[in-house]
Amino acid sequence: MLKGIDPLVSPELLGILAEMGHGDELAIVDANFPAVTMARRLVRVNSPAPRVLEAVLSLIPLDQYVEAPVTVMEVVGAPDQIPEPVKEFHAVASAAEGKPVEVSSVERFAFYDRSKAAFAVVATGETRLYGNVLVRKGVIRPE
């Protein structure tokens, strides 16, 4: 463990976050997601997906140059429905950034395509459906 770093952030996840560059995407996915099939780099964190998102966003900023730096998977057959994990993702991202964050949604197979192209996939222990989120890393400005 390290002082000041969320205990959910393993050495492997810390390395992935540090290696990501501006504009790279990270997929944080639920237990049903085909993570092994999709991932270029895979790390597992056996916790609820919103809690993993909170740990990740304690270390990286969201991209301020895109309209929606957070993307979720739409509910199949009901794209306007907002599942509980998605509500929590929005709250976590907004709290991390200290302002409302725009969240976009894409259909299931588009989410899969973006996950395949993502820098890494974090497979969580999230058992609720639609506990999947993509975040685009921003820049850390010099002080």
Task: Walk me through this protein's architecture.
The structure is a single chain. The chain has 143 residues and is of the alpha/beta class. The chain has one domain (11-136): RbsD-like fold. 32% of the residues lie in helices and 18% in strands. The protein is built from 5 helices and 6 strands. It has helices at 11-19, 35-38, 49-57, 84-97, 108-117; strands at 25-29, 42-45, 70-73, 103-106, 120-124, 133-136. It has a 6-stranded mixed sheet. Helix 4 links the parallel strand 3 (70-73) and strand 4. Helix 3 (49-57) runs parallel beside helix 4. The chain is globular and about 45 Å long. The mean pLDDT is 97.
User: Fraction of residues in helices?
Assistant: 25-40%
Total domain units: 1
> What number is the mean pLDDT?
97
Please report the number of helical segments.
Answer: 5
Name of the CATH homologous superfamily? RbsD-like domain
Number of DSSP strand runs: 6
* CATH architectural grouping: 3-Layer(aba) Sandwich
Name the helix and strand elements from N-terminus to C-terminus, one letter apiece.
HEHEHEHEHEE
- Write down the CATH topology: RbsD-like fold
Q: Which spans of ≥5 residues are poorly predicted at pLDDT below 50?
A: none
Shape designation: globular
> Major β-sheet, in short?
6 strands, mixed
Distance between the termini: 27 Å
| SSE-based structural type | alpha/beta
Report the CATH C-level class: Alpha Beta
Rg to the nearest angstrom? 14 Å
Q: Classify the beta-strand content into a percent band.
A: 15-25%
Q: How are the strands of the biggest sheet laid out side by side?
A: 2-5-1-6-3-4
